[in-house]
Each structure stands twice: as structure tokens, then as C-alpha cells.
Specification:
Helix content: 10-25%
Radius of gyration: 24 Å
Number of helices: 2
Shape: globular
Distance between the termini: 16 Å
Length: 200
């Protein structure tokens, strides 16, 4: 005969309330999804070697941004906007390089599309400029980034010693693993096991 299960009703109510609150909190945490921009390319064979460039060198760069970011104050125009920078990674021939990014500017299709990355300041600044599709929907004041691959029609790199103009490349916008997803599962398991172990 199957034993009768007795529930601690007050504890069960608390557990279910905790579970419901966890679901809401975890769902809210995922509202501002972080996406990653990835792009790579190859420098010209005639380039002068430097900290971030090498003849025929392969580079890759990536950075994080909210899918619905708030542009930096004072940067919004009809042609584009700057984003706040959280994380930036740059490598040359597979070796990570330390860089000081001063700004990342996204452009409308009318202004060339995609984005520019400026590293450093003044006459010694280095800049990548990627042109192609517009990488966001909405307005420049309230942009929204969508996952996908964006063709690069051309890209340039410039520093005091070099100026590259290339036509091959691709920008990818991919999701980051969301901690809130893991939290959501954890919240559910905690609530389930709490209920299970409160029974006799």
C-alpha cells in the first residue's frame, strides 16, 4: 500500500511563493540581453608592423553590448551614436593584445553602416572602420541590435604608419550565455526539492 504523503501546507505555500518570485526575478534579469559583436580580417602584406598590426597578419576583435543599449550622452545624431564599452578583446595572429578603446561608433546605412572602433587618441590613434549593413533597428536614440551575420562591403584600418582598404569580411552578432537562464533552472530546482523534502 502506498504511504500517505502529508504536506506542510504553510511551508508549501512559502515554497510556491518563492518559486513564483524567482521566476519573475529571473525573467526580469534576462530582459536586457547582452550580445557579442565578432569580426575578423587580414592586414595587407605591405603594412608596417606595429603593436596591433603585422604584414598579412590575421586580426580578430569582439565586444559586448546590450541588445537595446542606451547610447552615450552627447553622441547621438541622425547618422549614428556611440555605445558604452563593457568588454573588448583584440588578438593578432592568435595572440591577445592589450588595447585602450576610446570609442565605438555605430552608423546608419546612410553613413556607411556597421561601426568604427577607435583605439587611443590624438595623432597616434588607430582606427578600424567597417562599412556595410546597418547593424541596428529602431532609431539612433533607441537602437536595437539583432542577432545575425552582416556582410562587410569594405573595411579600413589606419594608424600613423598604415592605411589598409579591404573588401572581405563579416560581422557576427551572437548571444552570450545568460546567467539568468542558469539561475532560472536553479530557482526551479531549489523550489522543487524544498517541496519534496518538506513532505513526510
Amino acid at each position: 500500500m502506498k504511504p500517505k504523503v502529508n504536506y506542510d501546507r504553510p511551508m508549501l505555500k512559502q515554497t510556491l511563493l518563492l518559486f513564483a518570485m524567482s521566476m519573475v526575478a529571473c525573467g526580469m534579469a534576462s530582459a536586457g540581453q547582452v550580445v557579442v559583436f565578432d569580426v575578423s580580417g587580414q592586414f595587407s602584406g605591405s603594412d608596417v608592423a606595429g603593436p596591433l598590426v603585422a604584414p598579412n597578419g590575421m586580426f580578430s576583435l569582439s565586444f559586448d553590448v546590450l541588445s537595446n543599449p542606451t547610447p552615450l550622452p552627447g553622441t547621438v545624431s541622425s547618422l549614428g551614436f556611440d555605445i558604452p564599452l563593457d568588454y573588448f578583446d583584440y588578438s593578432l595572429n592568435g595572440v591577445a593584445k592589450s588595447v585602450a578603446v576610446s570609442e565605438i561608433t555605430f552608423s546608419t546605412l546612410a553613413n556607411g553602416g556597421l561601426f568604427n572602433v577607435t583605439i587611443g587618441t590624438g595623432l597616434s590613434a588607430e582606427e578600424f572602420s567597417f562599412e556595410g549593413a546597418q547593424a541596428f533597428s529602431g532609431t539612433t536614440a533607441a537602437p536595437v541590435f539583432s542577432l545575425g551575420n552582416y556582410a562587410v562591403t569594405n573595411w579600413t584600418y589606419s594608424d600613423p604608419s598604415n592605411f589598409d582598404v579591404e573588401t572581405v569580411g563579416k560581422v557576427s552578432i551572437v548571444p552570450t550565455p545568460e546567467p539568468s537562464t542558469i539561475l532560472l533552472v536553479s530557482c526551479g530546482l531549489v523550489a522543487f526539492w524544498s517541496r519534496k523534502f518538506r513532505t513526510n
